[in-house]
Amino acid sequence: MASEIPAIEVENLVRRFGDVEALSHVNVTIRKGEFFSLLGPSGCGKTTLLRIVGGLDMPDEGIVRIGGTDAREIPAHKRPVNTVFQSYALFPHLTVYDNIAFGLRMKKVAKPEISERVKKVMDLVEITPLGNRKPAQLSGGQKQRVALARAVVNEPQVLLLDEPLGALDLKLRKQLQVELLQLQRRLKITFIYVTHDQEEALVMSDRIAVMRAGKIEQMGEAESLYEHPHTRYVSQFLGSCNLIDGTVKRRGPKEAIVDSIVGELRVEFGQNPPAAAQRDKFTLAIRPEKVTLCRLDESAGENRVKVRVDELIYIGSETHYVLRAGEQRLTAEAMNVKVGSQGFDIGQEAIVYLPAAGLLVLDD
Amino acid sequence: MAKKKGEVKFGEQLTVGGHLSRSVVTSGPGIFWVTVFLLVPLVWIGVVSFLTRGEVGGYGKPFTFENYTRFAGFGFFGFDLLYPQIIFRSLVLGAGTAGFCMLAALPLAFFIAGMPARYKNTALTLVLIPFWTNLLIRTYAWQIILAPESPITHLAVALGLTTAGSPLYPSAMAIYIGMVCDYLPFLVLPLYSSVEKIDWSIAEAASDLGADKLRVFWHAILPQVTPGLVAGIVLVFIPATGQFVIPDLLGGAKTVMMGNAIQQQFLQSRDWPFGSAIAFIGMGIVLVGLWVYARFSGEKGGELL
At the topology level of CATH, where does B81-257 sit? Predict the structure, then answer.
């Protein structure tokens, strides 16, 4: 397996628009059959990267390899990749059937085979009854399926999806997320999926690259990105995080005692201490759901901080608290597991407990 | 149940009377204009075409088909296809002008649409500048440009296209230069507005799906500009078919076009009924042609006509 040729290799890719570097020295390797997401806010370069892989844009520097072949010399219309566009970009003058058949016709596939493959893929994405409609007669979700079918019917090595669910309402988006994932597992095509929706990326991807200002900030599996963000940016972009600044008081190989605005905190570095663990000033991050809220009289463990409840957002299964400990603002999320009242009111004083293993040392 | 008094439109309940008065105010002037200045004269010409020429011009009874049979070739001097030929010549001129205008307008419209935003209005104004000059003056200007001593003629001589000392007109080429110069804006403007609206992601999709440049243009770009192209072709074809000043001035006044045939009947020959018949036949052929085109080009062009 180790010697298998990656589906996509991107080396040192640079793309400039005027003075702006839309991509600056990006390196990614995407394995065959992987569901890989590029996650970032608009303007971070994720779509540019996708377009360069698809041949719709050219890099200023760097190499793209598709299945081991240098793709810079392959024009868009000959690349073994297909794109699902954000706006769908269906041919408005062609029927659904002709839209899907377009790619096969361009490749001069024999007519009976075209009809067979188009019908099969229409079945797969459940749009068989729509064959004679024009795109203008379709709903958003149906257009999305046609766009997907039009790309998938070509059996590309890699399918590029540019925020394909971005224009759909939440419910439909959730449903199509599941369908896309099932489709990908069934077809075993490598997916590169561009999105700015962190939840979508977490739910669907094998691996995620979080992008920022033309660079990949952090790359990894969903869980490792969420549990161990390396930077403020990643910690804030994937979910939310409490950030606490502090100075190192004592340092061991696996832990440190940090003096912070909320008092002395013990921090465990975990399996792989980050490089930032060697600094004197720490930025600590802790996820709101790892912040445990207790009554004043309850005995909790270490890293106890006295707080006041500033705000309380009740959302049924859980309650989100905005807490204040002096100058420091903390958020906590608690599952409402108790029967009856959860017991905290606005203005009430309480204790939070910040588990030492839940405190992460960020790079910046 | 309350009695229904009218329908809800534009967010308010309108009575039938209110609806009517509103329609009269908004559409009335347009309907008046079209009726008085287009429909009535047209019907009149139609009636005249079935009348007989008077002794000293004018027209009167009896009603007759003679004007139409005369057009079809059964004239005073035996069978002669002169008039169908004139109509055919005019149609060729209209189609040729539309064709050359299309070839010139396509690159021009894309070029202007691709310019930086601040130059676009200037470019469009330049396209319109010929309209600021009288047609006759523009056409005479071409006579000067194509005269024996003009630089362009010298260039043509150098290229071996003509002999020294002779002008480049009258010739078919000169006619078409004049025609394209005159009608190009009619095609460029609607085409340009279509080009501006092109959704380029559709072109990218075609390329992504394996279409080379030529096929991207054919399958993804041309269908998007078809409405503008068809509108422009119609706008050029119809008036170009009736044009006779340019063919006269740049073509040497040796050939009769539909336009001068009609003009001659009305002015020189004072045969209004026959002139009306030629006008009606010419109009009918153009309309039938457009209708056939709309039928066979499907909804793309059909919705424009």
Answer: MetI-like fold (1.10.3720)
